[in-house]
Amino acid sequence: MSSRVVVCSGCCCGNIEKGHSEVPVDYLKKSWEENNLGSRVELMISGCLGPCKMNNVSVLVTESDMIWLGDLGEEEHYESLVEWGKEVARNDQSEKLPEILSKKRFEPMNVKEEIINSITINQKVKQD
Ligand code: FES
What we know:
This protein is of the alpha+beta class and 128 residues long. It has helices at 25-34, 75-91, 99-102, 113-119; strands at 3-8, 41-46, 58-62, 66-69. FE2/S2 (inorganic) cluster is lined by residues 8, 10-13, 48-52, 55, 57.
């Protein structure tokens, strides 16, 4: 496993009662299964990652990088996560970020070390 897509579905991300867009967890799981991505790129649905203000948050994790994305509210954003996963699975390496996602990139502040450790590649993680 060389890469992981972490999608936050915690206290804020995806919480429509707080006015945030729903996180399409079923769509993502189905897409991962249909494209047989699981053995190459892990999909991890996580609890709160910390930067709730940037909802909805996802992180693209590779062996050398951690790309934080926020404000993912459109279907196209999640479709692009799937496309990124497919490209990485096909080429067995990190692919260039699609433009629609590169606009959503941010550098998180003060993320707890235990969170970073839990999403870093080669760490044992609890999955949804
Ligand atoms: S709920 Fe997603 S970052 Fe906090």
